[in-house]
Specification:
The complex is a heterodimer. Chain A is built from twelve helices and ten strands. By secondary structure, chain A is of the alpha/beta class. The relative contact order of chain B is 0.14. Classes of the chains: A alpha/beta, B alpha/beta. The structure holds adenosine-5'-triphosphate (2 copies) and magnesium ion (MG) (2 copies).
């Protein structure tokens, strides 16, 4: 494991058998995660963000067909037994989802739920687990942990439940925390608190984070590196500044031009991406973005552009015309 | 000065809080909207923002009299809606339409898009017979950027953004003056949000529409509104022209809210400081008697828990804030 990335995802593909045919949710996703790194995965609804997270953690339903690799410290998680994966999920990868109520047991006290995770995955005894769970509740900012530990999840607000989920995710000091849209259902003030908490606690525990969201604002302040997904592929990835200030894929550029910004007096008109995202049952040929792309040429519907480094661009993008996009964009995506 | 299109004065809505399934008894009163006043001129967009539960939708529903306000006045083109008859109210609804967040929930799945869009126009007698109705439907669909041929299809065949366009086409069919937009694009992807924002702008400039735009996403509000009103726990805490509100917010709550909104700009985001907002929003059943924000305010003084601060002028162009210690701050 020395020297290698913490997590290496390579050519991850996932399909679902459905009544309408094969749903091609992922079509070759590759990225790496370094220890302690904060990675953001961004993309529109249906682009495959959650399926990526679920595939890595062995949580896809049985109608899924998965190929590729996801190596954690060199060991392929996709080849692991269900039993071993359960341990990986508790001990090495912690998870925080959009809807904490689906993940918390409604008829079990908060404290007991955290203890249960600790007891299942470490050799702590009951007393130690109880002490740890109170410590965790305190660390995630739950007021009066002693009392809160005795309460049931439904008494907690959405923000408080998400804090509990972060405590559970961190309970066994994992190497990675995957947070899938953890704040989508929350007010913006609570969202800011939860994102800050996620950043702080993961840093304190030395865990790397994969934060999945469709909000480019959240990732701007959070992520070290960004993976942009479209129609089940990575279309561009790079460090956060190069993605925001030097986008080289027309989709990323389109996203940045579509966001309204609170810090800007009104620009005349937004420049939206035209059309709608494709159906994963009927993906366009070649580059899946070509029907919506202002740069499209005949080759775009014929060949899938690989995610690769091109001359003059500091990060890989999957576009036949990445160089043109990078130069034509005239620096106006973000000033 | 001409009469404003809409004027709301001292609007209140109290919901009884009941307990027990069979023997329902009232155990308290939820002050969902408590003394809200504003005016809306023709062709103007007023953005209404605030966190979940602060009373935004209740204001909207009271204005349209979808629920009965507990107190206050709603004047539409100078006419008092709360004292007019049911049949007069039905006629007036033609001029005031609402578009909801969830177009799925608000579009009857058994009706075709054509039937849905034609319904308000037929109801108000603006078109007669199938030919005229069909023509109106085609015009409306094209107006919102959809093909007229979609009229024969059903709502479930469309994406979220397309369904929201259908919702807007339906609202437009009765030729309204006022559109109340209750979180119309919150659930959509950013690229689709941008399309709908542009559509709303075009419709306003082409048809002279007036919008009450409700959203919790402040960047959408900054983009679309001319004036903005910030609510907290049933009250208006600040109201101002758009740029004044975003560039020199006066109320500590507005400041905290703005500081929490992330900006899609990494360099800027690294330099920003958030104003902490401790605790949670108090319940609107027995709300605090003095300043409602006092329990979470970073500027709180003793007097704030004793006096209820009025919504007073604090700057040019009727910039108002309900805070004894209102002071501008630059946050963005
Ligand atoms: N169990 C399943 N069976 C069939 N199709 C599925 C299943 N799970 C996901 N999909 C499909 O896979 C595609 C990718 O879904 P995914 O949930 O990863 O999107 P996402 O990027 O997380 O979107 P969102 O932002 O809406 O959460 C979608 O088209 C979705 O409909
Ligand atoms: N029918 C009702 N009975 C009792 N209380 C109600 C009712 N409708 C709304 N409320 C309460 O009134 C308050 C204001 O609700 P409202 O729906 O207006 O908030 P909102 O600002 O639109 O919130 P959101 O952003 O979540 O849509 C809330 O505390 C809510 O619980
Ligand atoms: Mg998802
Ligand atoms: Mg509402």
């Amino acid at each position: 494991m020395a020297g290698g990335p913490l997590l290496e995802v390579r050519d991850l593909a996932a399909g679902f058998d459905s009544r309408h045919g094969l749903v091609k949710a992922l079509n070759g996703v590759s990225f790496v995660l370094e220890p302690g790194e904060r990675l953001g995965i961004v993309g529109e609804s249906g682009s495959g963000k959650s399926v990526t997270a679920h595939a890595i953690t062995g949580l896809l339903p049985s109608n899924a067909r998965v190929t590729g690799e996801a190596r954690l410290d060199g060991v392929d998680l996709l080849q692991m037994s269900k039993r071993k994966m359960r341990h990986v999920r508790g001990e090495r990868i912690g998870m925080v989802f959009q809807n904490p109520l689906h993940c918390l047991n409604p008829s079990m006290k908060i404290g007991a739920q955290i203890e249960e995770v600790i007891l299942a995955h470490t050799d702590a005894d009951k007393r130690e687990a109880s002490r740890r769970s109170l410590e965790l509740l305190d660390q995630v900012g739950i007021p009066s942990p002693d009392r809160s530990a005795q309460e049931y999840p439904h008494l907690f607000s959405g923000g408080m439940r998400q804090r509990v989920m972060i405590a559970i995710a961190l309970a066994c000091k994992p190497q990675i925390v995957i947070a899938d849209e953890p704040t989508t259902a929350l007010d913006v003030t609570i969202q800011a608190q939860i994102i800050d908490l996620l950043a702080e606690t993961c840093k304190a525990y030395g865990a790397a984070v994969i934060l999945i969201t469709h909000d480019l604002g959240i990732l701007a302040g959070f992520a070290d590196r960004i993976v942009v997904m479209y129609a089940g592929r990575v279309v561009e990835q790079g460090d956060v500044d190069s993605i925001y200030y030097r986008p080289a894929h027309p989709y990323t550029l389109g996203l940045l031009r579509s966001v309204t910004r609170i810090d800007e007096a009104r620009r005349d008109r937004l420049v939206p991406i035209t059309g709608n995202p494709p159906s994963p049952v009927l993906l366009p040929s070649g580059c899946a973005f070509h029907p919506r792309c202002p740069y499209t040429q005949p080759v775009c519907s014929e060949r899938v552009p690989p995610l690769e480094l091109k001359g003059g661009i500091d990060h890989p993008a999957a576009c036949h015309f990445a160089e043109e996009v990078a130069t034509h964009r005239a620096g106006d995506a973000v000033q | 000065m001409s009469t404003p299109l809409l004027e709301v004065r001292h609007l209140k809505k109290i919901f009884p809080v009941t307990r027990g399934a069979i023997l329902r008894r009232t155990v308290g009163q939820a002050h969902a909207v408590d003394d809200v006043s504003f005016t809306l001129d023709r062709g103007e967009t007023l953005g209404l923002v605030g966190e979940s539960g602060c009373g935004k939708s209740t204001v909207a529903r009271c204005v349209l009299r979808l629920i009965e306000p507990s107190a206050g006045k709603v004047l539409f083109r100078g006419e008092d809606l709360l004292s007019c008859s049911r049949s007069r109210m039905r006629d007036l609804r033609r001029y005031m339409q609402i578009v909801f967040q969830d177009p799925y929930g608000s579009l009857n799945p058994r009706m075709t898009v054509g039937q849905l869009v034609a319904e308000p126009a037929l109801f108000h007698g603006l078109v007669k017979g199938r030919r005229e109705a069909g023509q109106r439907v085609g015009e409306m669909l094209e107006r919102v950027g959809l093909s007229a041929s979609y009229a024969r299809r059903y709502p479930h065949e469309f994406s979220g953004g397309q369904r929201q366009r259908i919702g807007i086409a339906r609202a437009l069919a009765s030729e309204p003056d006022l559109l109340i937009l209750d979180e119309p694009i919150s659930a959509l992807d950013v690229s689709i949000q941008a399309q709908i924002l542009n559509l709303l702008e075009d419709l306003q400039s082409d048809l002279g529409l007036t919008y009450l735009f409700i959203a919790h996403d402040l960047s959408l509000v900054r983009h679309l509104s001319h004036r903005v009103m910030v609510m907290y726990l049933g009250r208006v805490v600040e109201t101002a022209d758009r740029d004044a509100l975003f560039e020199s917010p006066m109320h500590p709550y507005t400041q905290a809210l703005l500081s929490a909104v992330p900006v899609a700009d990494p360099r800027k985001e690294r330099l920003r400081k958030r104003i902490p907002l401790p605790g949670t929003v108090p319940s609107c059943v027995d709300p605090p008697v003095a300043c409602r924000f006092a329990s979470r305010c970073f500027k709180v003084q003793k007097v704030c828990t004793e006096q209820d601060p009025p919504l007073e002028p604090v700057g040019e162009n009727d910039h108002r804030a309900a805070c004894l210690f209102a002071e501008p701050a630059r946050l963005l």
